[in-house]
Amino acid sequence: MGRLSPFQKIYLFLIAGFILGPFLPLIIQSFAFRWAWPDLLPGTWWLEQREKSPIPLAWDYVLSPYSRIWEATLNTVLIGGIVTAICLAICLPAAKVLARDRFRGKSLLEFGLSLPLIVPETAIGIALLMMFIRLGLAGTYTGIIIAHLIPTIPYMIRMLTSVWQGLGREFEEQAMILGASRWQVLRLVTLPMLMPGVVAGALFSFLVSTNIFLLTFLLGQGKIVTLPTLLFSKISGGQIDATGAGIALIVTVPGIAMLLISERFLREEAFGQGFGN
Amino acid sequence: MKRTVALAGLLTLTTAPLALAQDAAAFRDAFLAGETGWPAVEARARDEGEVNFYYWGGSDLLNVWVDSMAVPALATKGVTLNPIRITSTKDVVDVILAEKAAGKRLGDGSVDVLWVNGENFATLKVQDGLFGSFAQLLPTSANIEWNAEDPRSLLNLRDFGVETGGAEMPWSGEQYVCAYNGDTVEEDALPATFDQLKAYLTENPGRFTYVKPPHYLGNTFVQQAVYAFNPDGTGAEPFQQNRDDIAPEELARLIAPGLEYLKSLEPLLLNGSDSGARYPEDPAAIDGMFLNGEVDFNCKFGIYAVSTGLSTGTYPEAAREFIFPEKGMIKNKNYLAIPANAPNPAAALVLVDWMTTVDAQATKLEATGFPAGIDGWTLELSDRAALESASPGLIALTEEDLEANAVPDTNATLVDVIEAVWLDYIERDSTEGIEALVQRAYETLGQ
């Protein structure tokens, strides 16, 4: 690794500014009481008004049960986790078949699996809503989880198919020749080798699920609040006040946490330990 | 033995809600016929155990009040209040009607109580989506003026000109009030009429805008202009009629001058001279423009909007209220309605009854700045005093000023027409005449 040239440094700086820059005004806004044009910084800060105000302001509101932020975070993580688990259970075997077997109509099936990504979410949402109301699934966790599987499965299938394709049969055959049972092969050879791909796929579908707004909004009917729907109802007017900014910042937390966890996991578990011995 | 007990327990668990749903219709019929005493309603509400309250969740102040006051109050009555914050009331009306179409009857829908008024109530009423005429059967209905001979009862009996028929209970009363920024506007330069507003904007182009129809705040501004330029000089009067009672040609004649005025105002609005007038989409957006000094005035429903705006930092410090337009500030109420397929009808009645108590109304007014929906003159003196002392206070205006300039809303069926014509004539710059546009709106809406 050589040192970075000045050009590379500037380039990195610009990229970092592009990604992190928008957070700066959000952070400032979340501590503001009154921040009006053309002031560069808030004219009145939240802490100055904190004692005088009869109601919780800014972070006091965001972190209180009134804002519903804890409920929304819990719902988002719970739904994201369950969706990811179901998605994996469906996609791991399906991807194996798609990667290793040949059968009639395979390319048509592969194309069909991507269709949910092409059909507009609104169309899916409205149609599902009509069906779910009839079935009593509207406004339930089950309904939302089913809906979230629609956009996550196509991504997961694609990622896992290429993971399976990258995994030759030789390792599994080798283990079998040496006397391993099917279960041992799966547990000690196949899964550890698939692990980096599975983690990447799981991370991706978790992030997709936690960011789905429209389907959750339509099918949750306001009863089930997740971080994206909470944020929408707070800032849909195009005006971000202190509580809106605070909520927007919290909405980014699950994604960041997930990235950090998976980063660690990919580095230590899969490659650090090697294949279980 | 143990197993049978467990089985019996399971059976009662699963059959109890079913039984409640089945006799919900019988409960409704008996209650609406006045045969059910209030204690029986409260007892049934305890059995139902919960109530789903759907309301616009865009106000932090109201959210705090519902969670900290209404939820504990209902808990003392053995009912769990589930506050469900929504962004658009119309979406919930659609859900109610979709559930109804899917065969969900009283006892098995999802919405128990909905905060509503105007077109959304009219839609529910026309589509037969309401529980029935319950309002005057509640104990706290004594806090509301129902006597039709008293002109002050109008806002309780009619919602945007549509008869409420007791299917919704007044919850809050509002008036369309404008605020100005004292840092940028001299008090003696304040406009009092639409012509003066135009003169002010000719001097100071771009310093005003209004919320875009079809948002009700925009519709209301347009209605006020239409009243002011009514060619017969009869103001709001002809607009109380139902669409079926007024011919399109006649309506076109009445609204044309107001819409012409708004069209001529457009180049003077915010950004009007260069990229085309900018209309904010909702109250949060116009509050932002007002706070940032992009505009000098902020017109919306909000008798105490300046007071609450100052306490939350969403209004500039020099914000004050003023009278605009003279003799033409629309006043209305908003209501709590119970849908025809409410899952917990008795608990819904208990909630609406509590919402109409002096205690609920006074704490709501104090905490949120939403004016009371009950009528002060029906109350005992001590209650009236409690309500008055809860008021956050008017900034630069008096109650008498507001009362002297109050006018009623436009009939909900005509609001639809005026809104459609505004969208065609002003937003889409249609070159057709207003009469043709009114005609078309009648045809589209009549379908």
Description of the molecule:
The complex is a heterodimer of chains A (277) and B (447). By secondary structure, chain A is mainly α. Chain A has one domain (69-272): MetI-like (MetI-like fold), CATH 1.10.3720. Helices cover 73% and strands 2% of the residues of chain A. Chain A contains 14 helices and two strands; from the N terminus they run ααββαααααααααααα. Chain A has a two-stranded antiparallel ribbon with strand order 1-2. In chain A, helix 5 (69-100) packs parallel to helix 8 and helix 6 (106-118) packs across helix 8 (141-166). The longest helix of chain A is centred in the N-terminal third of the chain and has 32 residues, at 69-100. The radius of gyration of chain A is 24 Å and the shape is globular. By secondary structure, chain B is of the alpha/beta class. In chain B, strands 1, 2, 3, 6, 7, 8, 9 and 10 form an eight-stranded mixed sheet that branches. In chain B, strands 4-5 form a two-stranded antiparallel sheet. In chain B, a hairpin with a 2-residue loop joins strand 4 and strand 5. The relative contact order of chain B is 0.17. Mean pLDDT of chain B is 92; it is low at 1-16. The chains are: A mainly alpha (277), B alpha/beta (447).
